[in-house]
Amino acid sequence: MNLLRFPGLTRRNLPHFFTLREEVSPQKEDLPERLRAGGLPGGLVSAEQVHGVGVAKVGRSEVGKVISGADALISGESDLTLVVRVADCGPVWLHCGKTGAIGLVHSGRKGTELGIVPAAIQAMKKEFGADPAGMLGLLGPCIRPPHYDVDFAGEILRQMKAEGVGEIVDSGLCTASDPERFYSYRREKGKTGRHFAVLASV
After folding, report:
1. pLDDT digits over 33-90, tens only?
2. Looking at the DSSP assignment, which residues form a beta bridge with residue 104?
3. Domain spans, the chain
4. How far apart are CA 32 and CA 53, in angstroms?
């Protein structure tokens, strides 16, 4: 299985992965087997992803569902895997060291302009009592300048800093600059696959 993992999330003992490019783009029905192979809980919850600012609090009662209108999923329950799909937009993993709450965000140009990442952080504070100072925010592979004229990756990092996130990590990876490992919607003019970004609670 062709996967990318991040040391910052591993240090916090958070099961996670980001699928890399494959000859045949993985489909949603492939996910349960991939989760099992990756050692993640099979109970998955997905976001519809409408490039908006919707944040959904989810738990085991939402397992198997695609949450309509949501671009961010947050949870305080265990044995649950959150899923978003990307191909240039930014996947953002969130974890609160104080409460154990997790969040997974799909933040592209429009979602970043609307403030989906700050909305997710604020929702974690409201719903779980999360403390941004003890929070990790990790930005995964996404399109970046000079391959895109808007540096929404930089804006996501600025937004997390403004919210007081204590540990901010940027993968520094650009989907448009490495066609061997990444799909890029812009570079491939819409005819491309999707990456799965996943995060489980423990």
Report:
1. 888 887 888 789 999 999 999 999 999 999 999 999 999 999 999 989 999 999 999 9
2. 73, 93
3. 3-200
4. 27
- Which ranges of 47-191 does DSSP label H, i.e. alpha helix? 109-114, 116-128, 152-162
* pLDDT of the residue at 41: 80
Block residue for tokens 């980001």: 18
Helix locations, 19-151, DSSP H: 31-37, 109-114, 116-128
11: buried, middle or exposed (CB in 10 Å: 19+, 13-18, 0-12)? Answer: exposed
- Share of the chain residues as helix, strand and coil, in percent rounded to the nearest 5: 25, 25, 45
CATH number for the domain whose boundaries are 3-200:
3.60.140.10
Residue 3 bridge partners (DSSP)? 19
The structure tokens 């990876």 sit at 173
> Quick check: pTM over 0.85?
yes
Strand pairing category for 167-170 and 55-57 = unpaired
User: φ and ψ at 34, to 5 degrees?
Assistant: -65, -40
- What residues are paired with 93 via a beta bridge? 104, 138
Question: pLDDT class for 1, splitting at 50, 70, 90?
Answer: low
